Amino acid sequence: MDRFAAVERELRKAAPHRLLDVVSAALRERFDVQSVALRLADYGMTTLQVVSEVPIAEPVHVHDSPQGRAFGAQEPYVEPRTAPGPLTAHLPVTVRGDRLGVLTVTVPESGCSRADLADMQQICEALGHEILVAERDTDLYLLARRATRLTLAAEMQWQLLPGRSVSRPEFRLGAHLEPAYAIFGDNFDWSVSAHHLTLTVTNGMGKGMEAALLTNLVVNSLRNARRAGLDLPGQASLADQAVYTQHRGALHASVLLLRFDLATGEVEAVDAGSPRMWRLRGRTVDSIDFEPQLPLGMFEETEYVTQHLRVEPGDRLLIGSDGVYDSASAAGELYGQRALARSLSAHRFLPSEQVPLAVLRDLRDHRGSAPLDDDALVVCMDWFGRQSSAGDASE
User: Fold this and answer.
1) Within 10 Å of residue 266's Cβ, how many Cβ atoms?
2) Which segments constitute the PPM-type phosphatase domain (predicted)?
3) How far is it, in rounded angstroms, from Cα 242 to Cα 234?
4) Could you list the mean pLDDT of each consecutive 10-residue stretch along the chain, which spans 395 residues?
5) CB 377 within 8 Å of CB 320
6) What is the DSSP letter of 53?
C-alpha cells in the first residue's frame, strides 16, 4: 500500500503536463515496463487520442482496437502474443465511473500476473483523478480529446458538463451529445450527495452561440438555486426568472429536473418542456409522461409543481431531447414512436454508459442519409437501489 501512496504523492506534486512521466517512472521501477502511452477518448467517443504535446501516433478507433476493448469492457486487456517478445497490455483510466481513456504498457516477455495488472490498474485510477485536477491548469488533456476543432458553442457546452458518466452503488449513469463537435443548446447536469441524486436535462432554444449562452444561463441558474438549498420547484422558478429577466420571453429553455432519493427510489420531477423519459423494466419499455409545465423563461413568475414516481432496482431510465425522439425517417416516422423503444430493448445488456452512443447510432440508421438538423442528447441510468447502509456516509 505504501508504494501506491508514494506514486499518488508524486502525482500530486508533479506539474500538470508531467503526470504521464511520473506514472511511466513508477511502472518501470515496479514492473519493469518498457513503454507507456496514454490515450483519451475524443468528444465523439469514437476514437482514442494519444496524449502528447507533439502527436506521435495516430488515433485508434474505440470499436475495433485492442485499446477500445479495454475501454469498452472497463477491464485490463492483454494482447495475445503472436511471436516471442514483449507483451502489450491496455488498462482503462476511469474516475468514479467516468471513462477517460486507456493506458497502454509493454512488459517483458516473461509477462505480468493478474496481481501486477491489478496493481497497475490502481495506478491508472490515481492518474485519472490527477488528470481531472490538472485540467484546471493545462490544456494538454483537453486538446488530446479533440479529433477535430470544436465550435465555440460546443466548447461552452462541453465545459458545462460534470462528466460523461458516473457510478455509485445505487446507480450508474451515462450520457452523450451529438453532433459532438458542433453542439448548440442541449445539456445535462448532475449532482450527488449522501442521500440524493439531482439530474437535469436541458434543451435550449435557438442555434449556435445564442443557444449556448441561453443554456449556460439556465444551467448555472439551476446550480445556484440547488446550492442555495431550494427544492425542485424553487430551482425551476429561479432559473425561469433569470431567463425571463434576460430575454423577456423572446427565448426560453426546456428542462426536465429529477431528484432521486438514494435510499427509497422515490423521484421528484419537474417537467418544464421537451426532454422526455422512457423506462425499461424487465422487457417492457414504457414512456413516462409527466404533466407538462411551461418552459423556463417563457412568462414572468411561472410557478412550478413537483410530480412523483418511484424507480425499482433493475429499472433502466432513458431521457432524450426532442432532437432524438422527434427525428424523422425518410418515410416520416418519428424515432420516438417505435424505434427508440426497440433500440432501448435491443441494447438492454450494454452498460448504461454505452447505451447513449448505441441509441444515437440507431438514430442515424433511422434517419438514413439525412444529417442531424438538431442537437441530439441521450442520458441513460441504471437504478440498483441502496443495498446496505454503506452509501449513507456523506462524501
Assistant:
1) 14
2) 168-383
3) 12
4) 83 96 95 95 96 85 95 95 88 96 92 89 96 96 95 94 96 96 94 97 90 96 98 97 96 97 98 95 96 95 96 98 94 95 97 96 90 89 82 42
5) yes
6) S
User: Residue 43 — φ and ψ, nearest 5°?
Assistant: -65, -30
Give yes or no for a contact between 167 and 97, defined as CB atoms under 8 angstroms apart. Answer: yes
The single residue listed with the C-alpha cell 404533466 is 291
Question: How many distinct helices (H) and strands (E) make up the chain?
Answer: 11, 17
Kindly give the pairing relationship between strand 276-281 and strand 316-320. Answer: antiparallel
Cell of 234: 424553487
Residue 388: strand, helix, or coil? coil
Give Cα 139 distance to the centre of its chain: 20
Strand partners, 172: 167, 382
Identify which of 277, 305, 312 has the alpha carbon closest to the alpha carbon of residue 291.
305
User: Residue 224 CA to chain centroid, in angstroms?
Assistant: 22
DSSP track, 206-251:
SSHHHHHHHHHHHHHHHHHHHHTT--HHHHHHHHHHHHHHHHTTSS
